[in-house]
Write a structure and sequence with these properties.
nine-stranded parallel β-sheet; seven-stranded parallel β-sheet; about 5% helix; globular
């Protein structure tokens, strides 16, 4: 539920068959005193099935490493924490959130090329102000994006809205990406 102050967390490692609901007004931030700071994602989804992160709207719920963009600009000088990391996960849903101000990526797909994350849905998301990129797809099969905004990424290379790293993930397969908005970029949103 919403609290008068933001929630500060170190890292949440998910198990299968879990649903995390972020109620209206919730703001979840990285614990900046954590020994894992600059090293590990906020939410780790590794070798799981059926995990859902559900917020009550992009204007109503916020998940990020820093409370504001100004704080990220002041404190983040190099690559570090992503918000959501999916590694060999099956049937993952992230929806209804603003995901912002990470030290690296808003959502990153990583892991072993022989065992990609499968069937991921990103819906009704605002992925904004990330240091490296809004979404990094290094190893995934069946990524579906619906009503996702990639905006204002900047800091470290490649500073992309969506980065598909084919050199790492040969054989990557993606479902269509309808209704994707990439603000601040006039070029294609996919970097190949």
């Amino acid at each position: 539920d919403a609290m008068p102050e933001p929630w500060h967390l170190d890292q949440v490692t998910l198990r299968s068959d879990r649903r995390l609901v972020f109620r209206k007004g919730v703001k979840v931030l990285r614990d900046l005193s954590s020994p894992r700071l600059h090293k590990e994602p906020m939410f780790l989804v590794r070798q799981t099935e059926n995990v859902v992160f559900e917020g009550e709207g992009t204007n109503e719920t916020y998940v990020g490493c820093y409370a504001t963009h100004a704080e990220r600009l002041e404190k983040c000088k190099w690559y570090g924490d992503s918000v959501f990391s999916l590694d060999r996960a099956t049937n993952t849903v992230i929806r209804g959130l603003t995901v912002a101000d990470s030290e690296e990526d808003g959502v990153v797909f990583s892991g072993d090329i022989r065992n990609p994350s499968v069937n991921t849905r990103l819906e009704n998301l605002l992925l904004t102000r990330h240091y490296r990129q809004a979404c990094s797809i290094c190893n995934a099969k069946g990524v579906y994006c619906r009503n996702v905004t990639f905006a204002k990424t900047g800091g470290g290379q490649p500073s992309a809205g969506v980065d598909v790293e084919l050199t790492v993930s040969a054989g990557i397969q993606m479902l269509p990406i309808p209704n994707v908005v990439n603000k601040e970029y006039r070029e294609a949103i996919l970097e190949l």
